């Protein structure tokens, strides 16, 4: 069984790889994305969004708008069940 604070530990593990600006960027973008899509930060999709945003930030993304759009393109299909990059028939 996982400890009760397991989710909090996972978030900290992801965020500790970033500087202060990166932490602010990721937490703001992911919280906004989760709120818009009615996804809990503690659920699997919320954690995946966090991992994605941290990875993009570590790769050099500094723009909140660009990170938000990347997160939207990558994760929205998992919420809706429809891949946004799939060909339209």
Give the secondary structure arrangement, pairings included.
Blueprint: H1 6-15, H2 20-36, H3 44-58, H4 64-80
Short summary:
Helices cover 66% and strands 0% of the residues. It has helices at 6-15, 20-36, 44-58, 64-80.
Radius of gyration, in Å, reads 14 Å
Question: Which class do the helix and strand fractions yield?
Answer: mainly alpha
Proportion of strand residues: under 5%
The chain-level mean pLDDT equals: 77
Descriptive tags:
single chain; about 65% helix; 4 helices; mainly alpha; disordered C terminus; about 90 residues
Structural features, described:
The protein has 89 residues and is mainly alpha-helical. It has a domain of 59 residues. It has 4 helices and no strands. It is globular and about 25 Å long. The C terminus is likely disordered.
